[in-house]
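# step 3/5: fold
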Amino acid sequence: MPTPGETSVVEHEIRIAARPETVFAFFTDPARMVRWMGTEATLDPRPGGACRINVNDASVMLGEFVEVDPHRRIVFTWGWEGNLFEVPPQSTAVEISFTPDGDGTIVRLAHRRLPATAISVHQAGWGHYLGRLALAAAGRDPGPDPFLDLAAAAQALRAVAADAD
């Protein structure tokens, strides 16, 4: 069991029915980003560029792009304005790779340097949002995001955290 000062990584892998250049654009184009995550995004996809996503009225992610290798890999810092989930702005790192797989893409995401107290909420959040990304990148409508409703998001995250215990 992790001690309070330890950090951990959350990892996900998903196959998306779209080419790497299509999927990559959903991480670099603000209009595409908000089709699967958030209500507003400021993205400047170059090292040192801003990465800010208003997920819902209470959750605003603030980070910075670290590495941008078009259609192959993207790395950005991640944290929450207001130190939400004990993860201050730019305190963690998200690494995403895009590997061609026939007419699709294998997306591997690793969210590093998360405090132990934030693992379950980020595991659940990324699982939720990568599912929405798969639909959007494949040209399908992921529908309304239930996490935009703060009460529903809190309830879902509490349920996941309880299952992790």
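# step 4/5: annotate
The chain has a mean pLDDT of 91.
# step 5/5: archive (pending)
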